[in-house]
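Final report, results section. Input specification for complex C-07:
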Amino acid sequence: MAAWWKVLEVEADADLRAVKRAYAAKLKTIRQDEDPKGFMELRAAYDAARAHISYHEQQANDVTNEITNESVIEVDPDWEVLAQDAADTPPEISYPTIVEQLMDEVHTLINSPWGAGNVGSWTAILDDERLDDIDVYSDFENALLNYMLNIHGFFDEDANVKPKLDLTIAHLVFERFGWQNNRNSVHFNPVVYDWLADKFFRQHEDATYGDLKKIDLRADPAHANYSQFNQRRLIKKPSPRMDKFLKWFDGNGAFILVCLMIALMAIYYAFSPAANKSWDTIYRESIIASQTENNAPDYFGTQKKINLGNSIENIADLDCSQLEAWAKNYTMAESFGERPLDVPSTNEAFLPATDPMEVFKNMEVMKFEDRPANALDEALEKIWQDIESGKTGEVEASIDPAGDTLEERFKPSIKSPTTNKSSIQPWLRAKCLAEERPKYDLTPEE
Amino acid sequence: MSIVGIDLGTTNSLISVFTDDGPELIPNALGDFLTPSAVGLSDKGHVLVGQAAKDRLVTHPQLTQSRFKRYMGTNWGQKLGRKHYRAEDLSALVLASLKADAEAYLGAPVERAIISVPAYFNDVQRKATMAAGQIAGLKVERLINEPTAAALAYGLNDKDGESTFLVVDLGGGTFDVSILEMFDGVMEVRASAGDAFLGGEDFTDVVTKHFAEKLEAPLDKFSAKKAAMLRDLADQAKARLSSEHEVSFKFIDDKSNEQTLSLTRNKFEQLVEGLLKKLRHPIQRAVMDAGLRAENIDQVVLVGGATRMPVVRSLIARMFKTFPVHNINPDHVIAMGAAVQAGLVSRHSALDDIVMTDVCPFTLGTEVAIEIARGQHEDGHFQPIIERNTVIPVSRSVINSTIRKGQTQLNLRIFQGEAPRVNNNVFLGQVNISLPKNNKEHEAVDIRFTYDVSGVLEVLVEVLSTKKVSRLVIEGNPGALTKSEIDARFKELDKLKVHPRDETANVAFMARLAKAYENHLGDVRQEIQHMITVFEAVLARQNKHEITETREEIEPHLKAFEDRSIF
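Structure output:
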């Protein structure tokens, strides 16, 4: 094909105005319906010319910007006057500011414990009337997309971040911006959308985007934008040897795993001191030991972590009955020493031979006479604060049979990836206080 | 012989012609420019088109059809009387009626036409529209996208200027957005987006549903007549709310109780909030596709009757921080633009220095399988060939090869859409291509997509080794009609008895009387009954002059009654 300036019959350094004029003049001599070929050639030339000109404009702009930036730093003739002027005129709200504000809201929401699934708050942001303006909307959409890619580790090949939005919210966002349908636009990069859709919807095998889960995103076929984008994400085909191994493993993997486990158990049984005693003996020993001396044999691990299996990411989901159930578990653990919480205490096989009443007799009954009336409220308030300030995660309890007091022995905590562990002990304690029954301190009698 | 421009709308249709004085609308037999896109059968079994049919929707819902544009290119069909009609047939009847109007007005036979279609109509729907034209006995010279037509109508006012403008076209059933750039007499569509299933009728549906809720009866429990009547009233209420803040009307329910229903503008705005949200997306998409900011858009033009709604106008004003333009009647502007296009195609001398280029609003491509691992292929992937918003006419090609060596058949499936997997896109058709047996290497084919100025797709497949070219006749799409089917339908519809054109006014008036009768009770009903008797008696005497006189005499009284039921 001939060069564009030859087709358009202009100079190679013609400006946009000249190119447009030339194109318009030529176009009027061509019938699009009768000479589609001629038209397509002209059109291709025009497109090439525009691309060429806008590229050069862009470069020129970059240079100008650099110069302006430098001049600002070097020369500031009436700096104070300028500053005074700036202070006098009320700052105009510019689009970036609005978008920044909105993005701040998004950021706060996503980092709040219930932000991932809060339809109300998300709808409020997406329906914000500041987004009515098309420019704000486009900027916000771009900012949000970039933000999502960022926090989900798109730019970091090794990161494997869990989706930070619930399925409902992900749907809401995708549908609001029509991200599933933007693939073939010049201003959108399909790989980005597919990557994000994959992140949000793959694990759910979601019906709407279910198809996406199967797509090998890196092998987007023959797409126009494909080559421009992120080549390092292209598929790496496994080497033939690896491929062979994987196929073999597919067939035999389960068998190998079982063999390995049996072998490991055999080794443990042969060498572990505990393995030669009966479970009953071990359990009884550990309980008695813990009640009598501090350096008890540690068959169960002194710092035994018990996952309560509850996540309080969604504080709204917590109801009182659940809190109560936990509190009961704690008191139960308290009564019977460091029993694993998930073992029902009535299970005889695991009960110590000692009559529970015997154990009780050895305990000092502690009554909390002087508890404040609103202790529960206070404690709950604190929990709320903790959770609101972003200390969230899985509730976990650690048990230390050697501890002297209840607090030492039993430490529930919120495990959080973002903040320090924060104890929810006061709350539990308050919960116990609130219950109208005696509490037992496990401190052995001197 | 001139080419006519036709706006074949969901709710109303218009016909126009380009004269030396510019585009001109042609009135129908009732003297209106707008012919309702409604088709029905009269009591004698004659075909009725337009206002009469629209009014008979209320009195004879079983014998009348409207809003069929939405079903173009689908297998949808409806029985009227004993015959089964597809959307193409019904549209053809509307087109034939418009054609008759134009012939009466121009005093010459009309055979060639430009028909406007929503920019977002897909290939199947476009072909269906062309088929409807053919069934109506018209040679469809070209299809034109509705927003583009609107832009042509506006652009003529300012053909030397240089500007970028955005057309928001909210019609009865479809929604389109186009961004156009004008310079040196070139009108160039930069981007188009839309929703083929969103329009003024949806707003009416929402209001109808709201009223049904107010009457505490689910809509499907209404008799067909009452449902049609309620919808008719809801439509009028919606239209009135554009100029008034509250509207009330009387409705006679199934048990013949007179109920008063009212609706305020605020409530209406609440009801349509969801629809407004659907409006903003295509607009945003078109603006972003064209890579523009609000400041680059010089004008926002409103087109389509539904843009009369203040809610829509204020939404657009909020989005662009500017007041939209609607100098030309939004109901007329597309037909005017279609006439301009007709002028362009027939090379009218007044349009020598105007050229228009349009784009293909969606991506077209084929299904491909991709290799996901050695020797493992997964099919169902979409391979775009013509990207959306490419200037048309355009021709693009790709080379694909067979999955296996020695493969002798290739099944090529054509899709349209933006989704990465074909089953989320619109299936357009398929073709089977025979390949020479070649066990040594993968056979390769060159697939060429050509999208013409009417937005109709042609696919050529060339087997590279044999140079054998096959032209894709898109088949296997259940919605599309084949050439022979079109011919058969043309012959069939030609045999239908269409109600004589010179009686249209009388039939329409009678339908209007009958509708008013249904809408009233008591004394008023008695009086309308009296009008009907009088008019029937006059009709029986067949004195044209007397008929017209009586009609004109009764009309103001009838109008007074009609106005009384809605206030």
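Residues 95-223 of chain A form one domain. Residues 145 and 152 of chain A are 11 Å apart (CA to CA). This concludes the modelling results for the funded period.
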